[in-house]
Write a structure and sequence with these properties.
- This protein is mostly helical.
- Helix content is about 75%, strand content about 0%.
- It has one domain.
- The chain contains four helices and no strands.
- Helix 1 runs parallel beside helix 4.
Length: about 140
């Protein structure tokens, strides 16, 4: 919405939400399975020699889930804001130019309105994706292997 503040455009907010989800999912898995939850770090039937490598890879994978969740949200919202700021500056310049150009300045206004609607759609889609990925992470934690 115009003249409002979007907290999720800041990387700190997105990362804070994703890290809290990552911690919550891990605690949920530990609550359900106890110390057996850490067995997901090493697939069954794998050689014991590969254990250090597999555990490190799984830890990196778990951390990457949290980072990608927060970065995806912040990057998409910020990109929409930047596009809107650039196009609205262009529309304002055309409106204040005067002369015959001001007759044609109605076109950038329509583009700015379209971008505003598009940005609202992107915000809804990002909320949906964030929610779906969170439920997938919860499902993976509740139903390991």
């Amino acid at each position: 919405m115009p003249y409002t503040f979007t907290p999720t455009a800041h990387i700190v907010v997105g990362m804070g939400m994703s890290v809290s989800i990552l911690i919550g999912v891990t605690l949920l898995g530990i609550e359900n399975y106890g110390s057996n939850y850490l067995a997901m770090m090493m697939p069954g039937g794998s050689p014991l020699v590969l254990a250090p490598f597999l555990v490190v890879i799984e830890l990196i994978s778990q951390l990457a889930k949290g980072v990608s969740l927060g970065v995806r949200l912040a990057a998409n919202i910020t990109a929409g804001h930047l596009l809107f700021a650039i196009l609205s500056g262009f529309a304002f310049t055309m409106l204040t130019a005067g002369g015959i150009i001001s007759v044609l300045s109605i076109f950038p206004i329509f583009i700015v309105v379209f971008i505003t609607v598009l940005e609202m759609a992107v915000a809804l889609i990002q909320a949906y994706v964030f929610s779906i990925l969170t439920t997938i992470y919860i499902n993976d934690s509740v139903h390991i292997h």
